[in-house]
């Protein structure tokens, strides 16, 4: 398929009373194998979907864009590929960037002030994050789950997980069984969320100790990196291995992927 480049546009999606809920449209959707490039664009959305959605084998490069104010997430990548560089992704209700069954390279982005996580990588997705600033998101800075893998180098992950929105007991009961309720109430209500959380047979490669992960969570001694419920701080979490669940955090040599 041919590629399309868009430069300097302001794009927004409004709610529509013609559809149930908050509307059925995202601001920009790349589907059915589309190849799109965005530069210096402003994107926002008042609907329940993410501002920028990339799926169905599509490939997108976004550079120098502002992706903000989404009532869903900022960028949602499902079965697609994306390179995001030098973007300001902020003030989205769901995750700033979410990758499911896809691939992503994030370089020099600022992902900030979200109501939930900064970045979610899940469902066997692969991601490379280099020199990003992930700050002041209400929940985890980065979370990997469901056999996801990521390489991290030179990122600043700070001031996330302060739990400005604290779950009620009803919220916990709707999400967890009794054992989980007690654990997550203690971790997330008292201490907040960690800077990086690794779950469910996922792998994160920390490159040369170059990431700055500090000041996340609400308490002075809050977890900065959490591996499947067992937390480690500072140098202790490098080169560690949680055998029973196959979770790894290790240093490696970074190889930037070329997706597009």
Brief descriptors of the model:
single chain, 260 residues, mainly beta, 9-stranded mixed β-sheet
What does this structure look like?
This protein is mainly beta and 260 residues long. 8% of the residues lie in helices and 40% in strands. The chain contains two helices and 27 strands. The chain has helices at 169-175, 178-191, and strands at residues 3-7, 10-13, 28-30, 35-39, 42-45, 52-55, 59-63, 66-68, 75-78, 81-85, 88-90, 97-100, 103-107, 110-112, 119-122, 126-130, 133-135, 142-145, 149-153, 156-158, 196-198, 203-206, 212-214, 225-227, 230-232, 240-242, 247-251. The strands form three sheets. A ten-stranded mixed sheet has the order 1-4-7-10-13-16-19-22-27-26, with no helix packed on it. The chain has a nine-stranded mixed sheet with strand order 3-6-9-12-15-18-21-24-25, with no helix packed on it. Helix 1 crosses helix 2. Mean pLDDT is 78; it is low at 18-23 and 229-260.
Care to give the gist of this entry?
The chain is mainly beta and 260 residues long.
Which blocks of ≥5 consecutive residues have pLDDT under 50? Answer: 18-23, 229-260
Mean pLDDT: 78
Q: Strand-residue fraction?
A: 35-45%
Q: How many runs of DSSP E, i.e. beta strands? A: 27
Biggest sheet strand order reads: 1-4-7-10-13-16-19-22-27-26
Q: State the distance separating the first and last CA atoms.
A: 13 Å
Q: Please give the count of helices.
A: 2
Rg from Cα = 18 Å
């Amino acid at each position: 398929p041919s590629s399309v480049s868009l430069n300097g546009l302001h794009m927004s999606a409004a709610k529509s009373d013609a559809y149930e809920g908050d509307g059925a449209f995202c601001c920009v959707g790349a589907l059915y194998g589309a190849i799109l490039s965005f530069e210096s664009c402003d994107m926002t959305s008042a609907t329940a979907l993410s501002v920028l959605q990339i799926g169905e084998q599509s490939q997108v490069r976004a550079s120098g864009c502002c992706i903000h104010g989404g009532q869903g997430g900022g960028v949602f990548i499902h079965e697609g590929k994306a390179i995001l560089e030098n973007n300001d992704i902020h003030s989205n209700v769901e995750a700033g960037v979410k990758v499911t069954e896809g691939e992503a390279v994030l370089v020099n982005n600022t992902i900030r002030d979200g109501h939930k996580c900064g970045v979610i990588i899940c469902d066997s997705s692969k991601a490379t994050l280099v020199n990003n600033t992930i700050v002041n998101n209400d929940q985890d800075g980065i979370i990997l789950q469901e056999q996801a893998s990521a390489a991290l180098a030179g990122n600043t992950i700070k001031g996330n997980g302060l739990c400005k929105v604290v779950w009620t007991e009803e919220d916990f009961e709707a999400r967890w069984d009794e054992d989980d309720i007690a654990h997550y109430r203690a971790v997330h209500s008292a201490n907040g969320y960690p800077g990086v959380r690794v779950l469910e047979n996922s792998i994160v490669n920390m490159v040369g100790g170059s990431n700055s992960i500090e000041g996340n969570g609400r308490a002075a001694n809050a977890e900065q990196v959490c591996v499947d419920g067992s937390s480690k701080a500072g140098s202790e979490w490098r080169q560690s291995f949680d055998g029973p669940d196959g979770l790894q955090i290790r240093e490696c040599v970074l190889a930037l992927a070329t997706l597009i």
